[in-house]
Amino acid sequence: MPKHFSAEERDSIKADLIEAGKKMFAKYGFSKTTIEDITQEAQIGKGTFYLFFETKGDIFVEIYTEEWLKANALMQAKYMNKKGKLGDLILEYIYDNKKYLAESPLLFSIYDQAALNAVSDKGAHARLAKFNTLSNEKVEMIVNSWMEANQVNAALSPKVITGMMTCISYLNFHRDAIRGVDFDEIVKYLTEGISLVVAAHENAPKL
Q1: So what's the pLDDT on residue 31?
Q2: Between 20 and which of 42, 107, 143, 204 could a Cys-Cys bridge form, CB atoms 3.0 to 4.6 Å apart?
Q3: 32 to each of 38, 56, 173, how far by Cα in Å?
């Protein structure tokens, strides 16, 4: 396969690699999927893969971002400008988001230690940092819409509230380290705690 491609060919090849990656990661999981699996499924030479992605972690983050944006679009459609008490909205959003993650093997696979190590490699690091910024901005936009729709002048800023919500999601990275207790119960009480803290600061003077 030639090393130089037209813009149309590059778009087509990358799309084929993305689709093959989705299929392989869904079928075998991150750890067991190899770059060879992806290129064979896409019917593309292994050398061509490296014209588009540096590592397996690199393509995984791109696929993960694409799938996360689809899930986030559903969350935005449901939660943007939603009326209600801020603490209750946060509680509902966190539980709903957890359900979306649990129902998507690909999205939940990011919490696998092998996947986490791989997406932290040099090839995927920049893409991962870009995704983290994007995901925080998307959630903060929803939080801000709640505050505006419900005329909430909370002492806690949308950025701080978003950070608290994100921390709940990050707990999944430490699921294996938290032993001897019910992990889901811990998440439940921490989530409710965040909701109560936010509710206590609704319409309070800025800190």
Answers
A1: 83
A2: 42
A3: 11, 11, 19
Which of these, 145, 144, 200, 190, lies nearest to 167 by C-alpha position? 190
Type of residue found at 116? L
For residue 182, the 8-state DSSP code is -
Q: What is the pLDDT of residue 204?
A: 58
Question: In which residue ranges of the chain is pLDDT below 50?
Answer: 1
Instruction: Give the C-alpha separation, 109 to 64, whole Å.
Output: 9
Cα distances from 139 to residues 63, 65, 90, 179, in angstroms, run 19, 14, 11, 30
pTM of the model: 0.79
Rounded Cα distance between 182 and 108, Å, is 19
Residue labelled with tokens 């509680």: 91
- Reported as a single tens digit per residue, the pLDDT across 131-142 is 888 889 999 999
**Which residues are CB-neighbours of 74 under 8 A, at least 6 positions away?**
100
| Contact between residue 139 and residue 103 where contact means Cβ atoms under 8 Å apart | no
